[in-house]
């Protein structure tokens, strides 16, 4: 069973990417995102794909342009996550048969993203939109639309977000911060997964 969680490895370096990625994957999170504002992100993505590509979906976050989508694809990445909604970025991502998770806050952004072919919606920053805001947006979206909360969601509020209808989450500083060992990251990932499952998020 694939958990609806994305491990965000912001700041990871190529030299540690595989060990950290292995730790997150071993804990049970099978989607790994290397934000493009990390050191040498495309190198990290290549290394993760080479080592884990048959067991995990690896890709990039903070993807802002069509050119960046193509760069990630060339590096072997198959997951594109953005902080914003740019239809051209989504369309190119889908043309290349990659998963597309654009960032949205408003209903207009959400519908623009879906019209462009987004795989799901990244509610970002979730702490700004809040649970009430997410429920209001969810009410007007097509049935089956996937919403992942990113930014301000974690062990202390998984249950509230799940009860409100969120489908999954992207986990950043709670799962990895620069300088942490792979062992520490693995422990953090397991803690987050346990909390997610305890909150009723087994699927």
Automatic annotation (TrEMBL):
Domain of life of the native organism: Bacteria
Parts of the chain that traverse the membrane: none
Keywords: Carbohydrate metabolism, Lyase
Record carries keyword Nucleus: no
Pathway recorded for this protein: Carbohydrate acid metabolism
InterPro entries: Aldlse_KDPG_KHG (IPR000887), Aldolase_TIM (IPR013785), KDPG/KHG_AS_2 (IPR031338)
GO MF annotation: an example: lyase activity
Family assignment from sequence similarity: Belongs to the KHG/KDPG aldolase family.
Assembly mode: Homotrimer.
Protein name: 2-dehydro-3-deoxy-6-phosphogalactonate aldolase
Native organism taxonomy: Bacteria, Pseudomonadati, Pseudomonadota, Gammaproteobacteria, Oceanospirillales
């Amino acid at each position: 069973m694939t958990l609806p969680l994305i491990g965000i490895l912001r700041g990871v370096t190529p030299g540690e990417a595989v060990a950290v990625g292995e730790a997150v994957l071993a804990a049970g999170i099978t989607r790994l995102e290397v934000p493009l504002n990390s050191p040498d992100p495309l190198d990290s993505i290549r290394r993760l794909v080479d080592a884990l590509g048959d067991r995990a979906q690896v890709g990039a976050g903070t993807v802002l342009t069509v050119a960046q989508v193509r760069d990630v694809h060339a590096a072997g990445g198959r997951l594109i996550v953005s902080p914003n909604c740019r239809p051209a970025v989504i369309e190119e991502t889908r043309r290349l048969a990659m998963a597309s998770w654009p960032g949205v806050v408003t209903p207009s952004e959400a519908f623009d993203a879906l019209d462009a072919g987004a795989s799901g919606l990244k509610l970002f920053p979730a702490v700004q939109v809040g649970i009430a805001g997410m429920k209001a947006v969810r009410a007007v979206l097509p049935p089956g639309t996937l919403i992942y909360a990113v930014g301000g969601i974690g062990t202390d509020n998984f249950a509230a977000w799940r009860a409100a209808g969120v489908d999954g989450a992207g986990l950043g500083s709670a799962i990895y911060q620069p300088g942490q060992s792979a062992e520490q990251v693995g422990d953090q990932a397991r803690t987050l997964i346990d909390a997610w499952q305890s909150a009723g998020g087994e699927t």
